[in-house]
Design a protein that fits this description.
Blueprint lengths: L7 E5 L9 H18 L3 E4 L13 H10 L5 E8 L5 H14 L4 E6 L6 H6 L4 H6 L1 H12 L21 E5 L2 H10 L3 E3 L8 H11 L11 E9 L3 H19 L19 H10 L3 E4 L1 H15 L3 E5 L5 H16 L1
Parallel strand pairs: 1-2, 1-9, 2-3, 3-4, 4-5, 5-6, 6-7, 7-8, 7-9
Amino acid sequence: MTGKRVPFSVLDLAPICAGSTAAQSLANTLDLAQHAERWGYHRYWLAEHHNMPGIASAATSVVIGHVAAGTRTIRVGAGGIMLPNHAPLVVAEQFGTLATLYPDRIDLGLGRAPGTDQRTMIALRRHLAGDVDRFPQDVLELQAYFATPESGGAPVHAIPGEGTQVPIWILGSSLYGAQLAAALGLPFAFASHFAPAELDNALALYRHRFKPSATLAQPHAMAALNVFAADSDAEARRLFTSLQQAFLNLRRGMPGQLPMPVDDIGALTSLPERTMLEHALSCSIVGAADTVRKGVADFLARTQANELIVTAMIHDHAARLRSFEILAEIVAA
């Protein structure tokens, strides 16, 4: 599709589908990861969300361990850990342990948002205002915990953790993350799958301001994309309505399990809601193989991303597997 081979990865929100359970969701996550590994996907990332009835990856590091234990070669990581919710030392110990158990396979993507609502944030024993302001310092603290210790170093150590050099990514949906990733010389992943407004500006800013570091010599940008692939355009559009309903329910303040698809999303939405969905989910490729092939190629040409990370909130697990399989066939070709 382009002159160079761009790695494709999976972002899994571990959806709990309507009529199903968290246990089934986590079983589906491992099954998808095992298929993704066989199909040649590069990374398998899970995201931290709290108080969400339709997402089973709240204890993100635990689910990462579940996936890493059930796979052999694919990189597994967080896309991401919401750092304001956690003390950096705890994150360093968790991911240092994962990196010790699964060497050279663990990634740590860091987000600045709490990934939840105000009341849940308080239940997490954190206070948003001060902790968000500390985000850059917390990232630096994490890097120090993962570094190889020097003689006479700091009195606090992450064990396991120190010396593991767990790769850190900065995640973002605005210009803030792009600026921080550039200043620290870290790889950057943009959440264009649900917040596309600043995608082009963020990537341009990141590349323009990037400062080489011991971690990274050149800017490395990943963009997120919804891909709903099926054997026909019509079936893919129907599968896509599950995500549309879930996103709309969240905006209405009524988050729930991932809904079953419907034949006509228009019957459930007002014109302003459809306009909102069209904008928020504009980085979505929905269709059969030819449609997906062209859409992905156009997105790569637009973003010049070094990697793509793909998500698909599809209600039926078999259809979800098929969607990722179709994309893998396109990439392989």
